[in-house]
Amino acid sequence: MIELDNVSYGHNGTALFSQLSLTLAPGSFQFLTGPSGAGKTTLLRLCYADLRAQKGKTRLFGQDASTLDRDGVAMSRRRIGVVHQDCQFIDHLSVAENIALPLTVAGRVSEAAGNLKELLSWVGLGPQSGRLPPELSGGERQRAALARAVIMSPDVIIADEPTGNVDWEMSQRLLSLLVELNRMGKTVLIATHDLNIIRSLKSDVDARVLRLKDGQLTTAGSVL
Ligand SMILES: Nc1ncnc2c1ncn2[C@@H]1O[C@H](COP(=O)(O)OP(=O)(O)OP(=O)(O)O)[C@@H](O)[C@H]1O
After folding, report:
1. What is the number of the ligand 1 atom nearest to the C-alpha of 43?
2. Does the reported pTM lie above 0.90?
3. Which residues line ligand 1 (CB under 6 A)?
4. What class is the 1-79+187-224 domain?
5. Can you list the GO cellular component terms from the UniProt entry (predicted)?
């Protein structure tokens, strides 16, 4: 579905990793762990074609990303929902408008109303839908970010520290939403430094744990 094949990348000439390979198989659930600064966000950005591999190949849904033009990348990106580390909302738009933004930008305004109501209730943000993003708590922001990532019904969800800055109960709630999405057939990749979150999954899902450290990606095993 998404494949990095012997990819090398560095920022400003400083190599972060080289010849790194990663496959997001359809329906898989994977965690990406590793110390701060190891390159987890960079790796995620390569997976959703926000960055281009400097060496090696990225394949998105069977297509070589380096051969895709802007529209081709945009088409592939529509199949990937991204939960960014810092949420990135437009502060003068309501929570509902922010969540619906990917649909409105794509000109699918008529779909927005129906999808939105269902999504707001799924993430438990119905009562907060008219508020502005700065009025939300950390956990509410993370849930709004997740709702926005899935409003286009993507095949793949890529979440960068989706449980950062929330308490244990809220992190469990967010994780259970991601597990639910995986049960619906979505491919899920979550970057987190929080090993307790991974351990808390127990047998809920067949998750694979990858560890990025010193430019090497290793499989840390299953949480089962
Ligand atoms: N746009 C950029 N320009 C220059 N350097 C960058 C850029 N983005 C990231 N870096 C550097 O690359 C390294 C990896 O950053 P990255 O954000 O990918 O790591 P991370 O594992 O996600 O870290 P964290 O867990 O702290 O979020 C860091 O040293 C960072 O400073």
Report:
1. 18
2. yes
3. 11-12, 16, 34, 36-42, 193
4. alpha beta
5. plasma membrane
